[in-house]
Amino acid sequence: MSRNFLVIDPEEGMEVLKGLASPVRVSILKLLHMQGAMNGNDIARHLDLPQSTVSTNIQVLEGAGLIRTETQKARKGSQKICHSLFDEVLVMFKDDINPMKSNTIEVAMPIGLYTSCAVSAPCGLCSIDGIIGLLDVPDTFLDPDRMKAGLIWFTRGYVEYQFPNNARLSGNTIETMEFSMELSSEVPGTSADWPSDITLVVNGTEIGTWTSPGDFGDKRGVYTPDWWKLKGSQYGKLKSWRVTADGSYVDGVKISSVSLVDLDLDNHHSIRLRIGVKDEAKHPGGINIFGRGFGNYDQEIIMRLQTER
Question: Quick count: other Cβ atoms within 10 Å of Cβ 104?
């Protein structure tokens, strides 16, 4: 399984070092790493700390780029959910970091860890164990159990993911950005001939549209669990979206002139990826996003950043 790592130069990454220079903050990071996403109250309870102490330290960790947070509806008001961003933090002087610039930085994003969404029915989510929430109820996409999702589908709208911009944090320049994911159209039942225009947007800039040919159910997906009905979506096509200095491509075919310069990634702490079907799409045929435990590839949404040598 892919591991998310952060490489920093101690001469330039003082905010990160300050974020780590506290037993309380280290305990919070360790808890999130071991237990997964949690809200502030749960963190305070697990660590036996005052809520005010936890809240203050969460702000420091978020400011240092070591965690990300999202606001969700709660029974009373709202709650802030905290997510760990990195499995490893490597502290290296710049002379040691430079040789790594030829490396590919890879981050795997579970398909249920979107930070915002706006979808229309028919829609739904499921894990390898069963349906999550209620089918065809868009509000189910706010269910905390969505983090377990291995398959999500909707007709129109989008889900948006926030990836850490590890290249910026380590002082490297991005030469190529790539997103890899398994996708198909979505129709009640399945149909190999059901085109759908699936659009990707990065940091608010549309990079292009790929038209999925259909919703595939002629055979069970390699990893799709046995409980999932055979007449449901079984697998998709593994698509590679790449943005370079020359433009944007899907599986090597240029789809737009949007380039890395247009995305201005050097000035963004995170990389926001929005996947969806626009209301005005010529082929509004819905979307299935396959993650671990479903489809033919058993992978999350993968972001790869190729940095300069």
Answer: 10
Q: What is the pLDDT of residues 27-63, one digit of tens each?
A: 999 999 888 889 999 999 999 999 999 999 999 998 8
Residue 106: C-alpha distances to residues 103, 175, 300 (Å): 9, 14, 12
Give how many domains the chain has, as a whole number: 2
32 token code pair: 């999130």
Indicate if 67 and 104 belong to the same structural domain.
Answer: no
86 & 108 share domain = no
Among the candidates 58, 92, 126, a domain finishes at 92
In angstroms, rounded to a whole number, what is the distance separating the alpha carbons of residues 92 and 276? 39
Q: Which two tokens stand for residue 121?
A: 């029915």
- What are 88's strand-pairing partners? 5
Rounded alpha-carbon distances, angstroms, from residue 65 to 4, 30, 169: 13, 15, 9
Q: Structural domain of residue 129, as residue ranges?
A: 100-307
pTM: 0.69
- The answer to whether the CB of 103 falls within 8 A of the CB of 307 is yes
pLDDT digits (tens, 9 = 90+) for 136-171: 999 999 999 999 999 999 999 999 999 999 888 778
CB 303 within 8 A of CB 271: yes
